[in-house]
Design brief:
Chain lengths: 487, 450
């Protein structure tokens, strides 16, 4: 089933929305600057509603079912968050309004900063970064600014475990650093001996994801952080997997210097088909002055009758701005409501049930799928999508076959250190019944892989389109619809 | 609420795992750091939480209670009801980036259509799936140019009339490239100078020239000569746009732009106190392999049916790791969808109409304000829907008075440009009625009389 494009649906002369005529005397247009043609489609409102409604039905979503993408934390997105973000007092405020007219926004941002500090064990937070990747960039630029401020200019390297997400090395390179890969030991922790071998006075820092992308809590994390500090480096914590640690442990207490949050993972804000996210950055005391700004602070203490007066401040040695205005405020509102509905016990319960769900799936699948680093996991685990006695079957085939069972597949081919990786993160919002159906499907698929492998190879069978030719897409690059000329 | 587990289910699951309690699952966490006491307010029910949020929201004054003449990169436009109705579909907003194309055709086709609309609007050959906002899209243009010349050209020329926050973001993004210099917007340069002043900055070390259209002060220039001069020394040209203005104005493709970036917020995205917005990034087809960010391409499935996939992924961080030129993983998916819906609804005549309304109302306002004693227009070029007014007093003081009349005044340019103290940037959109503009004029007149 395919849906025509908006250009194919267009019919000259149609209009989807009408505007009033000008109520002011007319000024001549600057003719030398006026365009001759504007090749946009022409549709009625019902055309547009039906077109995009049909497109929406071609998507899988969290509202439809389990979305077990490892390290993506595709948890349920509470509906009240959507209502809150659309309150006119939030949605219709201009970012450059006088501060006294937006005290509600500033209070919300201030409290969210305070809550994130408390949850993570850090001394300062900037809400500005737009997404996790931008939070990472911000964090590494803070590390860079810190060393520079101390006149320590010889530090040119960033250490990154081989299990890390691709954004970690890409971020380091963007920030002007050379990347040094660190091996993982046989238990899935950072290899301590290898770490000791590479630590020297040229190391600016380490980027560490904990729990790591194998879903394992690094049992040496405190020692790892101590060793890096001893060599004069700083430790960046990738907050992608914070869902496992809410109320369980605080990265700041474990010795991390800086980390980012993903409000769209841990704090339930929707992924939006690929954004907007929000990637606030938290830092320990010695890095507070380097945060990007402006950030919200109390400029005049409150009294019993009056709330405090909030305002924006630029940290003293700030790395500067990483985007316009103050960050993804609409996303912050959703995260604020989510945290306020959980409180300390509720947050701990999130982590406990996320970890319970992952371990339950792991226990149910252990006999059928090889688990290369098999121990109690945190919120996710990694299985191998291959069997010696089912030649030709790859993780991709298992993923595609899962679609036939009406599940979104897990992350595959990541982390790179596991062959044919299937990285499974169920999140806390899935029930035992859903997990059982998912485990049953994966067990059935393993049987099929041995008995009727073509079912996997040809999957998915009942989707709007079948397996797509990605080589053709890259070779015959078509990046936009045919746009009629001379419109 | 959101965690469905009952006590018996929890017990069964623990038994299957082979542990006695939830606590046993966390024994890898060093005991000394386990279970910190979090000092957070106790949990609220849904009705309490929304009441608390509502109360905070009511502590604000917003652009529909006030009469808004504030722009400077974020604009108060009408958003047709159909836009948000579609965005609220869970199939769109609770999906993730389209890793599995067979079950993500809705998101993929919508992005493909977004790319097509942006291509049409900007007059370029291709658009990516979007960046975070106008500021980061501008910064990514700088990064792209740096890598395009493999670091051998060490200068980026940027006009002082590019949005101050975009220039600041560009500087942060490029701080890691130590050999690179950004010139053209130094403090001593007159911010209201015309594009000619950039010509003498161009040389064979110039990687990129960045200008804005309409510029931060609302002015419209023909950048053809500048682009030609830049191309003569082999440099690339990036133009920052307000996409809504392109409903009326010539697209930068016609000036010779190589890259067009901009803030997509005017295309159906609420003000929302500055975000989430939409970073537009379009370029010529020869740079397809050089741009960062997601791209959606058309292809066919095994049965020969048309479909869409993420393409040219070999450029991206998950494959190239430290050799990638950007770490971006996703795009601004839902915001790109919003703008695609908005542009589909307005179409060619609707967008032109909105752009003309903005233009006409802004020119009426400028005419009226320019006639008020004590105020003078600071306009040395044609303008779109924003213009600079020199006020008789400090802008903050003027705005305080306007606020008493329920008017959200213009942007205080002195905050970014010391030489423009007492200068206000006023934005007028289709939302402003003649009556509102007249009220603004009356209130401004009162200030000069005080």
């Amino acid at each position: 089933m395919t849906e025509p494009t908006i250009y194919e649906l267009s019919s000259p002369g149609r209009l989807g929305v009408r505007y009033p005529d000008p109520d002011v005397p007319l000024t001549p247009l600057p003719t030398e600057f006026v365009r001759d043609s504007l090749p946009l489609p022409e549709l009625s409102e019902p055309d547009v509603i039906r077109h995009f409604t049909k497109l929406s039905t071609l998507n899988y979503s969290v509202d439809r079912g389990l979305y077990p993408l490892g390290s993506c934390t595709m948890k349920y997105n509470p509906k009240v968050n959507e209502e809150a973000a659309r309150l006119p007092g939030f949605a219709l405020t201009h970012p450059l309004q006088p501060e006294e007219t937006v005290q509600g926004n500033l209070a919300l941002m201030y409290e969210l900063q305070e809550w994130l500090k408390e949850i993570s064990g850090f001394a300062g937070v900037s809400l500005q970064p737009a997404a996790g990747a931008q939070g990472e960039f911000t964090g590494v630029m803070i590390i860079r600014a810190y060393h520079k401020s101390r006149g320590d200019t010889k530090r040119t390297k960033i250490l990154i475990p081989d299990s890390a997400h691709g954004t970690n090395p890409a971020t380091s390179a963007m920030s002007g650093y050379q990347v040094v890969n660190l091996p993982t030991d046989s238990n899935g922790n950072v290899d301590l001996d290898a770490l000791k071998n590479v630590l020297d006075d040229q190391v600016a820092g380490l980027m560490l994801t904990n729990p790591n992308t194998l879903g394992l809590f690094d049992v040496n994390v405190v020692e790892v952080n101590r060793l890096v500090h001893e060599a004069g480096g700083l430790v960046y914590g990738d907050g992608a997997n914070l869902n496992a640690l809410l109320g369980i442990a605080r990265p700041g207490d474990l010795g991390f210097d800086v980390m980012h949050f993903n409000l769209h993972k841990t704090f339930s804000t929707p992924h939006g088909g690929g954004g907007p996210g929000s990637g606030p950055v938290a830092v320990a005391k010695h890095l507070v002055d380097f945060l990007p700004g402006p950030i919200v602070d109390i400029v005049e203490e409150g009294t019993e009758e009056e709330p405090p007066l909030y305002g924006f401040c630029m940290p003293a040695k700030s790395i500067g701005r990483v985007k316009s205005f103050f960050g993804h405020f609409g996303v912050m509102v959703r995260a604020y409501v989510y945290i306020s509905m959980h409180g300390p016990e509720g947050l701990r319960s999130i982590a406990e049930h996320a970890v319970l769900n992952a371990n339950y799936l792991l226990a149910r699948l252990r006999k059928t799928y090889k688990i290369p680093y098999d121990r109690i996991c945190m919120h996710e685990f990694v299985a191998e999508g291959r069997w010696e006695d089912a030649p030709g079957i790859r993780a991709l085939d298992i993923a595609k076959r899962l679609i036939d069972y009406d599940f979104h597949p897990p992350t595959n081919y990541f982390p790179l250190i596991v062959h044919e990786a299937l990285m499974i993160e169920p999140t806390e919002t899935e029930s035992k019944q859903t997990l059982d159906r998912f485990a049953d499907a994966l067990i059935k698929i393993a049987e099929e892989a041995h008995q009727s492998p073509e079912l996997l190879k040809e999957a998915p069978h009942n989707t709007p389109v079948r397996r797509l030719d990605e080589v053709k897409a890259a070779k015959d690059l078509v990046l936009c619809c045919w746009i009629p000329e001379n419109q | 609420m959101f965690i469905p587990h009952t006590d018996p289910e929890r017990a069964q699951m623990l038994q299957t795992i082979g542990v006695k309690s939830l606590e046993e699952l966390f024994k890898d966490v060093p005991e000394a750091y386990r279970y910190p006491q979090l000092n957070l307010p106790p949990a609220l029910s849904e009705m309490e939480a929304i009441a608390q949020a509502t109360s905070l929201s009511q502590a604000n004054e917003h652009a529909r209670e006030l009469i808004c003449f504030l722009g400077a990169g974020a604009y108060n436009h009408y958003i047709p009801a159909a836009v948000d109705m579609l965005l609220r579909r869970g199939e769109f907003y609770t999906a993730y980036t389209p890793y599995q194309p067979e079950i993500s055709q809705g998101t993929l086709q919508a992005i493909f259509e977004y790319q097509s609309l942006i291509t049409a609007l900007t007059g370029m050959d291709i658009s990516n799936a979007s960046h975070y906002d106008g500021a980061t899209a501008t910064a990514e243009a700088g990064v792209m140019a740096y890598h395009y010349f493999r670091g051998r050209r060490n200068k980026i020329v940027v006009s002082p009339s590019v949005h101050p926050q975009y220039r600041a973001t560009l500087k942060t993004y490029l701080a890691g490239y130590e050999s690179l210099h950004i010139v053209g917007d130094e403090a001593e340069v007159d911010p209201l100078s015309t594009p000619d002043h950039l010509l003498n900055q161009l040389d064979v070390n110039t990687a990129l020239v960045i200008v804005q259209h309409p510029d931060f002060f609302g002015r419209i220039f023909d950048y053809t000569a500048l682009a030609k001069a830049a191309h003569e020394v082999g440099a690339l040209v990036a133009v920052v746009v307000n996409p809504l203005s392109l409903g009326l104005l010539k697209p930068p493709g016609q000036f010779g732009a190589d890259i067009v970036v901009g803030e997509g917020q005017p295309l159906g995205i609420p003000l929302s106190f500055g975000g989430p917005y939409l970073g537009i990034f379009a370029t010529r087809s020869e740079y397809a392999h050089k741009i960062s960010g997601r791209l959606v391409g058309e292809t066919v499935d095994v049965a020969g049916n048309k479909g869409y996939v993420l393409t040219l992924t070999a450029r991206e961080q998950h494959i190239k790791r430290e050799k990638a030129t950007s770490n971006i993983c996703t795009n601004q998916g839902l915001m790109a969808l919003a703008s695609a819906i908005y542009l589909s609804l307005l179409g060619k005549s609707g967008l032109r109409k909105v752009a003309e309304l903005c233009y006409q109302k802004a020119h009426y306002a400028a005419e009226e304000i320019g006639a008020i004693p004590g105020y003078s227009l600071c306009v040395n070029a044609p303008f779109f829907h924003e213009f600079v007014v020199c006020c008789p007093k400090d802008v903050a003081e003027v705005n305080e008075h306007l606020l008493e009349h329920g008017i959200l005044g213009g942007y205080d340019l002195g905050r970014d440009y010391p030489s423009l103290r007492n200068h206000m940037l006023i934005a007028v959109t289709e939302m402003n009625t003649r009556e509102e503009i007249d009220l603004l004029c009356e209130a401004l007149q009162e200030v000069s009389h005080d």
